[in-house]
Amino acid sequence: MSAPTTATDREADDGPLLDVRGLKTEFRTEGGPIVASNEVSFSLDRGETMGLVGESGAGKSVTARSLMRLIDSPGEITGGQVVFNGEDLLQKTEAEMRDIRGNRIAMIPQDPMSSLNPVMTVGEQITETIRRHQDVSKSEARRLAIESMDDVGIPDAEERIDDYPHEFSGGMRQRVLVAIGFSCEPDLIIADEPTTALDVTTQAKILDLLNEMQEREGTAVLMITHNLGVVAQTCDHVGVMYAGNLVETAELGDLFDRPRHPYTRSLIDSIPEVDTDYDELPTLDGAMPDLGDLPSGCNFAPRCPHATEACRTGGDPSLDAVGDGSSRAACLHADDLDLSESTVPEAGAGRRDIDRTGEPLFEVRNLKKYFNAGEGVFGNVHLSWSGGGLPTVERRHVKAVDDVSFDVYPGETVGLVGESGCGKSTVARTALRLLEPTDGEVYFEGQPLHELGSSEIRSLRREMQMIFQDPQSSLNPRKTVGQIVGRAMEKHGIATGEEKRERVGDLLERVGLSRAAASKYPHEFSGGQQQRVAIAHALAVEPKLIVCDEPVSALDVSVQAQILNLLNEIQDDENISFLFISHNIGVIRHICDRVAVMYLGKIAEFGSIEQVFSPPFHPYTESLLSAVPHANPDRETDRILLEGSVPSPINPPSGCPFQTRCPKKIGDVCEQDLPELEAVDGGDHYISCHLSDEEMSQRESFITPSKRAETSPADSD
Amino acid sequence: MSMYNYVFRRVGFMAVTLFFVTLIAFAVTNILPGDVALLILGPNATDQSLEALQTQLGLNRPLYVQYIDWVVGLLQGNMGESLRFGEPVAQLIAERLPRSMMLAVAATLIAVVLSVPLGVYAAINQNEAPDVSASMFAFVGISMPIFLWGLVFILVFAVWLNLFPTGGYVSPSEDLVGSLTRLVLPAGAMGFALTAYIMRMTRSSMLEVLSEEYINLARAKGMSQRVIVLRHALKNAIIPVITVIAFQFSYAFGGVVVLEEVFFWPGIGRLTLTAIQSRDIPLIQGCILVVALIYMFSNFAADLLYAYFDPRIRYGGDD
Ligand SMILES: Nc1ncnc2c1ncn2[C@@H]1O[C@H](COP(=O)(O)OP(=O)(O)OP(=O)(O)O)[C@@H](O)[C@H]1O
Ligand code: SF4
Ligand code: SF4
Ligand SMILES: [Mg+2]
Questions:
Q1: Is residue A356 part of a domain?
Q2: Quick one: which of A247, A364, A685, B230 is 20 to 30 A from B105 by CA?
């Protein structure tokens, strides 16, 4: 974090680095103009970090791109000033702007996978920026590029500079983007969701890197994110956007302690804390209005608990200073409202107890799934020409799932969590026989799935449904929602005709849609609503088990909690079991009863949420948990940053799969012996590590003890 | 998968394809109507002499023997002897093929030179006047069959404007200028007809690439429009276009067969026609085989180029 700038510092300088005044950006659409950035004003000092938060579509990216004049037709900047280093950028010519972009103002984009040109080496992409803005020779630019790759922590920069983007992992590509951003030592970096596409452990490293680079170079950063945890960790002050307007700006501490705008309060309240138990996850109800069809008064009025008649009839409230602090808010009642208290009910009872005395509903034993490395029939046949002479042929495998065992009891939710590529989805698909397992046993209600023929499997499919990450691709776009849900019922002979229609209507209401939704097509719904349709579709056949593969990852944060609550509610009513796959340990925390932490195709730790989130910890679980950013600026977490990246599953490390990155690695044992997944203190908490219980218990629980004490005696239903 | 593996596998597939091509070439000529011996000897031949000739040509042996014989000959570089010309097929083809190649290559070059810049230009001016007129220009090219374009070109450029000769062929080693002036019209007509596909592919490929995140980033780095289009976008956009170009080259080869008639161009097209008209079985087989080989090799070349331009393929796929 940069050094706090005092008021006198600011005065001493001749004005702020960036002063945005009344910036207005519009898009011409068929339905009339959309104002995506409406009279936005804020300023940013040298070396300072400002966060820009808000729901999807609030206008954060448009505002940021407007600053660099990167708005394309049909968009247009229609008013205001962007004063940067004392000059109004909106008055500059395009050629002058090109000298500023990448040089004085640089951008770090969101998606490391698509933001680098696939046919140019990373070196070319860094040096072209340097050569564009600095008068240096080719070899000098190359030297500078290697230096900047070094600075962002890319190992062996000198060898890797001529590699292509696809030869780097996601985290490394994001480092390359950071290197490009800082390569010309800009005064301002605009980072648009720089870590959203990354796993938590990588996210933590990139945020640290950004902070470090910023401190070293004295760069100002405009950090766009929907993650208040990221804001709390990195920003000095924050702007909150809603429906194209900046509705509040405040110092970081003030924003969390004393928000001035009701929307800010709701936004903060909608974040589930990792260390809190909830009966129901807090949600931000309703949706942001369509920018083409804004209400006449305050845009937030339809969702605001404090709205009065004056709010609905007056114009847009303007962004004015509130009280004597430094905050500004666009709310008529900002001076009268005290929003410092959270409106979320105190911690709830947490999850119910699960009866695990009987038969498990679903059981997986020693499941293995190896894929051929490469495509096609002969894809895994690999010719190696080493050593001269005739080429030798070898077959190689990707060990996506390697000896995984777990069980799921009726009414229980079991989570699979781990970084991308660790084999979570493959476990689910193989267990359901959507993929043919390489080895192992799978039982559903005692029946051996691995021995059944395909017709028997098909009839069992009714009992086991699946919900996917991307609802759009799993719903047939040419069928109405009624047809999609109804067809599932017909196929398994549950209901037909009038009865079917009746049930479809009931189901749609059950998942929070209207009965009328039955006659609409999937594309007429938002992402969250489509996921509700997918849930209705899964429920239509009255399954006993639903496998949810990242069901909320593609959804806006404010919608995620609604879907998770719905799943919880359905489970309570129908006693369905869930196998819940997610890379987001925060989500797992609130929806699962037990969780398996996976690393490189194997289970590292398995136990109840309580057990996994409390010591003893597997070193991998510990680092995963420590990396979750907390939406609380006062909280210092002692994060463990993992070195390197996940090894290739074609060629996994010997011994413990985590040994190449483990901060607690003992030595030779870890490199030679594969640790067993063993019960710690004889209970039902399993860890696969050579360390002793004491050595794995050096950190406190991630579930605050006080809160546990409060909640555990509470009667659970 | 390394580049070696990639080429290794492609060559394997080609060998299999080639086997089927020989089967087809052989089958087609053997179900062609008309008796070869009868054709050679004329309607007044006696049954005896017909039979004698059939035996001499080996036509009354079982089909599979004839096939194996033919393939063994091919492997030894012997394509048989033309019935009509009495010369080795290989020699006839070797003489005509370069002329057709010259025409097809020139046509493809003209098409590429016209269509790629046009496609890029259309894409960066999407839905504006330059885009619409470029698309219309290209559309005209495919609005008529190739041989009609040949006739139109002759009519306009040779007969009315009298700029080029109406047809014929002169070897470039004898008279370079005369050779080139005779090449312009047939290659131009052919190239014009090919322009539309390549241009449309370039345009849509460019449009897709221009909306990619990395183009956004290039702009945010301060790159000029020229650098963005030429360095960042075109290099990506051209990858799928290369396949289309190679495909168009084989298409051009098909068109050449027709155009050679129109322009009196003594290439492999006219040779094939003559061969078919005279039921010259060894020659037909040879021609089919050679044309099929050219198809296969241009597609193979397209794949190699594709791999060369796209590093993700060069090193075996984006995991
Ligand atoms: N090219 C465009 N044409 C029309 N409308 C657009 C265009 N680009 C953005 N908009 C509109 O501008 C509004 C703001 O979009 P913007 O991308 O800035 O949101 P955001 O706050 O960055 O959201 P997210 O968190 O999803 O990135 C949206 O309503 C969007 O539909
Ligand atoms: S102006 Fe009224 S409706 Fe708008 S945020 Fe303030 S209190 Fe709520
Ligand atoms: S076995 Fe060794 S390397 Fe593996 S997690 Fe335990 S301490 Fe780390
Ligand atoms: Mg955005």
A1: no
A2: B230
A167 contacts in chain B (CB < 8 Å): 315
Q: Which ligand neighbours the alpha carbon of A299 most closely?
A: 2
Do A17 and A63 lie in one domain? The reply is yes
Query: Which residue lies with its CA nearest to atom 3 of ligand 3?
Result: A659
Which residues, in sequence order, are CB contacts of A540 under 8 Å at separation 6+?
A: A485, A486, A488, A489, A494, A503, A504, A507
Domains of chain B, residue spans: 2-75, 92-314
Residue A209: inside a domain: yes
Smallest Cα distance from B77 to chain A, Å: 29
How many degrees, rounded to 5, is the angle at CA B272 between CA B270 and CA B277? Answer: 95
CATH class label, B92-314: mainly alpha
ipTM of the complex: 0.75
Q: How many structural domains comprise chain A?
A: 4
Facing A119 at nearest CB: one of B213, B220, B236? B236
Give the mean pLDDT of A119-124: 93
pLDDT tens-digit series, residues A17-68: 999 999 999 998 888 888 999 999 999 999 999 999 988 888 999 999 999 9
Residue where a domain stops, chosen among A595, A630, A664:
A595
Report d(CA A431, CA A446) in Å as an integer: 14
Residues A227 and A314 in one domain: no
Whether residue A583 sits in one domain with residue A609: no
Q: Which residue of B has its CA nearest to A71?
A: B216
For residue A129, which residues of chain B lie inside 8 Å, CB to CB?
221-222
pLDDT in tens, A415-474: 999 887 788 888 888 888 888 888 999 999 988 988 888 888 888 888 899 888 877 778
A619 lies in the same domain as A494: no
A51 Cα–ligand 4 center, Å: 13
Domain boundary among A595, A622, A637: A595
Specify whether A220 is located in the same domain as A297: no
Does this model's pTM top 0.90? My answer is no
Give the residue from A263, A234, A235 showing the smallest Cα distance to A247: A263
pLDDT over 80 (residue A367): yes
B10: which chain A residues are within 8 Å (Cβ-Cβ)? none
Q: How far lies A200's CA from each of A214, A254, A270, A626, in Å?
A: 21, 26, 20, 9
Same domain? A665 vs A564: no
Residues A225 and A261 in one domain: no
The string over A505-534, giving b where at least 16 C-beta atoms fall within 10 Å of a residue's C-beta and e elsewhere, is bebbebbbbeeebbebebeebebbbbbbbb
Tokens matching residue A471: 């609802």
Cα–Cα distance between A127 and A133 in angstroms, integer? 10
Considering only CB atoms, A119 lies closest to which of B2, B235, B316, namely B235
Whole-number pLDDT of residue A345: 65
Q: Quick one: A121 and A263 in the same domain?
A: no
Cβ-nearest to B221 among A102, A167, A382: A102
- DSSP 8-class letter at A90: G
- Give me the phi and psi of A377, to 5 degrees please: -60, -45
CATH number of the domain residue A58 falls in: 3.40.50.300
Structural domain range at position A639: 600-697
- With a 6 A CB cut-off, is A74 part of the ligand 1 pocket? yes
Task: Give percent of chain B with pLDDT exceeding 70.
Answer: 91
Is there a contact between B184 and B169 (Cβ–Cβ < 8 Å)?
no
Identify which of A111, A136, A87, A193 has the alpha carbon closest to the alpha carbon of residue B216.
A111
